[in-house]
Design brief:
Number of domains: 1
Distance between the termini: 29 Å
Order of helices and strands: HHHHH
Number of helices: 5
Strand content: under 5%
Largest sheet: none
Radius of gyration: 15 Å
Helix content: over 70%
């Protein structure tokens, strides 16, 4: 891998992480924190964008790899279950998978 690719991934990773932080914050402040709507919005839009981007290493790995977040999704699901909120936890897993797959499919179709 070239130095330019490495630098591009690093730069786009910073942009992706910042965009995730901002979108999650905006959505969460408007929708509340009872359900992780911000993470769902980030992962859905990231899945759609990855469907559009296809196999682009810079966009897929750098920008969208830093933008989307599997670990936060799982942590938030765990916290919901830990708090005895099983229904929202299951909805978070199943709903996020369904929305993510649909968004990626739609992106690929476009």
């Amino acid at each position: 891998m070239s130095l330019g690719t490495w630098l591009g991934i690093a730069a786009l990773g910073g942009v992706g992480a910042t965009a995730r932080f901002l979108l999650d914050g905006v959505v969460s402040s408007r929708a509340g924190t009872a359900f992780p709507w911000g993470t769902l919005a980030v992962n859905a839009t990231g899945s759609f964008a990855l469907g559009l981007a296809g196999t682009s290493v810079l966009v897929g790995t750098g920008l969208l790899g830093a933008y989307t977040t599997f670990s936060t999704w799982m942590l938030e699901t765990h916290r919901l279950a830990e708090d005895g909120r099983w229904r929202p936890a299951v909805v978070n897993v199943v709903g996020s998978l369904a929305v993510g797959l649909a968004a990626a499919w739609l992106g690929r179709q476009l």
